[in-house]
User: Which sequence fits this backbone?
């Protein structure tokens, strides 16, 4: 247990720099160990009749570290709640539970000695002829304490209403955990939020700052330490002394007026142009021309940078190139101004962050021999409509294949028994990958100088994409040109939530639980693999990329029924970046199938893992399948943080499939 505690302490320390654990009670290590025995459940390949399971353990008051005098236990197995049973004394028993089943256990106090606590777990597997007892260890409970605090608008000093704070003290992971939340109440008379929490179990609180669920936050905490994603976030330690929390309006963009003079070589004003600003804050804004000052006026919101675009135009027989003014906020309360594709090189600094900026732009005069150029392009693909924009120096025309979106590395699997006419013979599987074009929509605007490219239908998640522009036509000359650097790469992550229970160990030996996975190849020839030792891989689902951090610690390895400590740490995700970029294609094939492939990923044809793309980690063990008669499994400790700041930790035991 000392090694267990030491390693978990290191794991937790690795993420406390960015978030606090929502259930911070470390008094239930043996409970967590017992809960994770559910991960030792094996598939009953022999179809034996299994005995029922008896859960037993003790309910401990965390204030005294002594057993509580009385507790009521109510358990739900599958969809069915059993009648609650009250226990007195040191130890409880819950008999006659089905094995290999998930459960919810609610612990209550008839006398109000402690507040309710819920445990999510699973019963073990037990074969016929054996008595199955499952030790749940010491389940910690705590008396309640009321926490009260005010939340005020920092500008008006008035209470902010409408917040709902929630925290959790359950043990284990369960889909119904939200219904066991500790939830705040608000007293309009006192202006205070109140919530009753277990005094000796550290619970953090969250309350969304996006009241309308429209992606726009109504408030920001005055101190950034209290924000996590879209939530107001209060750690257990913060709650001990918190009296007042101050919020400010979440719309922190600066209102600014931009006044732009567009002039020719004689410093005379040029009117009747369509100057625009187009970004995610302001969307599309067209400048209004002020005839008195001869300026184009923009009243917009400013964050860190903004770009004013002036499209190419002609006056008489004089042609002018597209140009832009780029404004960026500096850290010393000043603006950096840069003109792109304008006459001369213009770059300067304006100090003091004034609310009105007067700017002047002199476009470049061009000739028919002037080379077409890219003036600006989107820094990123717009995640809302997945569009990409390129601003050119003069009006362009598109050819049928000018604009493309390429879906990269699309895998095709053709098995020998798929189609008698596909030229892939029985007994052989062909695996290839290639780039595939996606249907696109294009739009030319701003006098045909701004090109917008977007997919005709939403892009499929889990792939990398490349937006690119090939040959385009410069309208004034009719000359085709392929402009340098008018492309961008874009990745669409899977939107699936990470689930620790989706981790899989497999040795790729074409058997699972000693039984052949695929009994014959695509030619109908019988396969006869043996359950021999092979290197074991940990397979991670694609959703692992949706984590902020993820650390696994290998602790106990059971080989052919013999357990030993084997300590090793795997930092899977660090600061939102996946450290193990090994990606493997799992395809289920017989051992005697011939595989012809031309892909850069590794292929795992002999695993019991679901077909598809998985990330994998070599865990450094050489093992055979887990059997009912000879265990082969590895126990890991884990801690991971989601992108939203939720932190989970525990242990998980994975059998070798």
Assistant:
């Amino acid at each position: 247990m000392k090694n267990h505690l030491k390693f978990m302490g290191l794991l937790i320390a690795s993420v406390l720099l960015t978030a606090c654990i929502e259930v911070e009670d470390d008094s239930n290590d043996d409970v967590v160990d017992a809960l994770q025995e559910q991960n030792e459940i094996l598939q009953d390949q022999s179809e034996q009749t299994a005995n029922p399971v008896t859960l037993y353990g003790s309910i401990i008051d965390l204030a005294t570290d002594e057993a509580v005098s009385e507790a009521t236990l109510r358990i739900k197995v599958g969809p069915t709640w059993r009648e609650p049973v009250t226990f007195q004394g040191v130890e409880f028993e819950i008999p006659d539970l089905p094995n290999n089943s998930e459960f919810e256990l609610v612990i209550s106090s008839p006398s109000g000695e402690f507040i309710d606590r819920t445990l999510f777990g699973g019963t073990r597997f037990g074969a016929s002829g054996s008595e199955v007892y499952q030790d749940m260890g010491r389940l910690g409970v705590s008396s309640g304490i009321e926490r009260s605090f005010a939340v005020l608008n920092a500008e008006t000093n008035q209470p902010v209403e409408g917040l709902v704070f929630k925290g959790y003290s359950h043990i284990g992971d369960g889909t119904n955990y939200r219904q066991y939340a500790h939830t705040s109440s608000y007293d309009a008379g006192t202006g205070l939020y109140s919530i009753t929490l277990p005094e000796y179990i550290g619970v953090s609180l969250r309350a969304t700052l996006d009241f309308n669920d429209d992606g726009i936050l109504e408030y920001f905490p005055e101190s950034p330490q209290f924000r996590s994603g879209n939530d107001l976030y209060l750690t257990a330690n913060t709650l001990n002394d918190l009296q007042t929390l101050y919020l400010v309006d979440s719309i922190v963009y600066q209102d600014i007026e931009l006044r732009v003079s567009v002039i020719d070589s004689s410093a005379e004003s040029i009117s009747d142009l369509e100057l625009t600003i187009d970004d995610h804050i302001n969307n599309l804004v067209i400048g209004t021309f002020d005839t008195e000052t001869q300026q184009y006026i923009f009243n917009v919101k400013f964050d860190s940078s903004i770009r004013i675009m002036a499209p190419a135009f002609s006056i008489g027989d004089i042609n002018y190139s597209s140009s832009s003014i780029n404004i960026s906020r500096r850290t010393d309360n000043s603006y950096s101004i840069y003109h792109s594709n304008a006459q001369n090189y213009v770059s300067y600094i304006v100090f003091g962050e004034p609310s009105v900026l007067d700017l002047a732009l002199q476009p470049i005069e061009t000739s028919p021999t002037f080379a077409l150029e890219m003036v600006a392009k989107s820094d990123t693909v717009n995640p809302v409509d997945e569009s990409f924009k390129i601003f050119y120096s003069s009006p362009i025309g598109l050819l049928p294949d000018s604009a493309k979106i390429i879906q990269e590395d699309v895998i095709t699997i053709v098995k020998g028994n798929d189609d008698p006419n596909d030229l892939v013979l029985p007994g052989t599987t062909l695996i290839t990958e290639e780039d595939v074009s996606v249907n696109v929509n294009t739009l030319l605007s701003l006098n045909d100088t701004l090109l917008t490219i977007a997919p005709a239908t939403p892009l499929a998640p889990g792939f990398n994409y490349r937006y690119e522009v090939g040959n385009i036509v410069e309208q004034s000359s009719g000359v085709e040109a392929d402009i340098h650097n008018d492309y961008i790469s874009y990745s669409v992550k899977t939107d699936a939530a990470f689930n620790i229970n989706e981790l899989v160990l497999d040795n790729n030996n074409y058997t699972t639980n000693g039984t052949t996975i695929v009994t014959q190849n695509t030619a109908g020839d019988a396969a006869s693999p043996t359950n021999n030792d092979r290197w074991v891989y940990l397979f991670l689902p694609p959703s692992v990329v949706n984590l902020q951090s993820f650390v696994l610690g290998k602790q106990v390895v059971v080989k052919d029924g013999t357990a030993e400590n084997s300590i090793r740490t795997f930092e899977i995700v660090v600061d939102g970046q996946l450290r193990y970029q090994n990606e493997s294609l799992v395809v289920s094939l017989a051992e005697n199938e011939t595989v012809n492939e031309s892909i850069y990923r590794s292929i795992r044809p002999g695993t019991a893992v679901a077909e598809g793309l998985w990330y994998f980690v070599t865990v450094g063990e050489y093992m055979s399948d887990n059997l009912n008669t000879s265990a082969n499994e590895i126990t890991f400790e884990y801690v991971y943080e989601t992108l939203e700041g939720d932190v989970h930790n525990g242990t998980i035991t994975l059998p070798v499939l």
Summary: The mean pLDDT is 85.
